[in-house]
Amino acid sequence: MKKAFLAICSVISWFFLLLVYFVPVPFAFMVWVITNKFDKRLFWLQRFRGLWGFLFVFCNPMWRLKVVGRNNFSDHKPYVLVSNHQSMVDIPILCCLFRHYKWVSKFENMNIPIVGWFMKLNKDLLIKRSSLRSVRHLSDNAAQCIAEGNSLMIFPEGTRSGSGKMRPFKEGAFHIALENKVDIVPIVLNNSYNALYPNSWIFRFTRLSLKVLNPIPYESFAHKTAIELACEVQQQIQLELDKMQNQNS
Questions:
Q1: Residue 113 binned pLDDT confidence (cut-offs 50, 70, 90)
Q2: Burial class (CB within 10 angstroms; exposed 0-12, middle 13-18, buried 19+) of 109
Q3: What is the pTM (predicted TM-score) of this model?
Q4: How far is Cα 95 from Cα 117, in angstroms, rounded to an integer?
Q5: Residue pLDDT, tens place only, 9-33
Q6: For 161, left (φ over 0), alpha (ψ -120 to 50), or beta?
Q7: Regarding the domain delimited by 2-248, which CATH topology (the fold level of the hierarchy) does it fall under?
Q8: If 53 and its partner were Cys, which of 38, 92, 159, 209 is the partner (CB 3.0–4.6 Å)?
């Protein structure tokens, strides 16, 4: 009976989510046409993407999202934003921050309908992990993006955890922070894994949490290696994630 109830609720939710997913596309194009001549950072297009993510999350009656610490970083200086990665719904959840940033993402995400189109329109940074040339170009593109005043959003795990538990953090995001002398902002996602399991279309009633921790100033880690920094930031995110999970249990 419970499975049937979840299936019915999921069908209703998918109906509303598909409307939210596709309907805003022409409006996003209009925002780009109107603003791209004077808005070199594509600030307003990113704000629209934030609205799209917000609607995607809040139009699902089976989800409730709590956002904490949104004001811990601003749009007026660049950061390297790093978040754990539990589920495919993490992308629209992070859009609910309503902050300006570019994604650093694997090239395969360009094949996701709408998401890939948004990424191309917003000039997000893409990487082919199997291509050494692409990895080298990422460093140059990231430096230019930061120099233009854009923050970068990165999943240091590289891919979804698959089990809800964090994978080891890769060093790429921390190399970027060190090379460009910018602060790091740790972000914690909790419970998104339970919202939609991998390879499943069934939603679950879920209380989602998104928490932005205090920025880590560049001066505090300038002397460290990317490997050391990756381990320390992962420990910080894991500690906060454990607290959030204990509060929900």
A1: confident
A2: middle
A3: 0.91
A4: 15
A5: 777 777 777 777 777 778 888 998 8
A6: alpha
A7: Glycerol-3-phosphate (1)-acyltransferase (3.40.1130)
A8: 92
